[in-house]
Design brief:
The chain is built from ten helices and no strands. It is an all-alpha fold and 194 residues long.
Length: 194
């Protein structure tokens, strides 16, 4: 029996997933409505353009619907579908060979840029992620946005675990530096660092 339409919006994701597993497409539609923009946002942060993000998100939700009986509620539905989407992105990335994760990272001056920044030159996370080298952005988004462990990201990328960990650490360091309040790139080399 389908979930009552008036109750769908108030239902917990686990309830909707259970009804979707029983064949209620509208219950699954509610899950897509709730989490679609978050999944597309993750994919854009990983490097997909908006059209590609829409396509991969759609493929991920189709796969999630086909596998909904496998969802046990051990984590959130959102994390589960984001992991599916992240893996689809990696598969697409591999197939198209758009970036080389094993490539040496650029020097600090290339990654940060040469602009001076003050309080008036603040950026958001998406902009800061776009400025990272592609390999670091992808590893960060898989681990933090996609919910994959370092080992799972390494397996998905077919890369050594140490390489993924290095890309994540360098990416986090660059994000911290880029997003630091009151950062002064012109004087960055003159401060004391521990």
């Amino acid at each position: 029996m389908p979930y009552p339409p008036a109750s769908r919006a108030a239902a917990h994701d686990l309830e909707l997933a259970a009804f979707a597993a029983g064949g209620d497409r509208q219950a699954f539609g509610e899950l897509v409505r709730r989490h679609g923009s978050t999944v597309r946002g993750l994919l854009r942060r990983m490097g997909a353009d908006p059209g590609m993000a829409d396509d991969i998100a759609q493929d991920a939700f189709v796969a999630a619907f086909e596998q909904i009986s496998d969802f046990r509620g051990e984590g959130t539905f959102q994390a589960w579908v984001k992991t599916i989407a992240a893996r689809f992105y990696v598969k697409n990335w591999r197939r198209n060979a758009r970036i080389e994760v094993m490539k040496s990272p650029p020097g600090p001056e290339e990654a940060i840029g040469s602009t001076q920044a003050g309080a008036a030159d603040r950026i958001d996370l998406d902009e800061a992620l776009r400025e990272l080298p592609a390999s670091e952005r992808l590893c960060l988004c898989l681990c933090y946005g996609g919910g994959l462990s370092h080992a799972e990201a390494a397996q998905a990328l077919n890369a050594p675990l140490g390489t993924v960990k290095s890309h994540v650490k360098r990416g986090l360091d660059r994000l911290r530096q880029r997003l630091a309040p009151g950062r002064d790139l012109a004087g960055a080399g003159s401060g004391t660092h521990g």
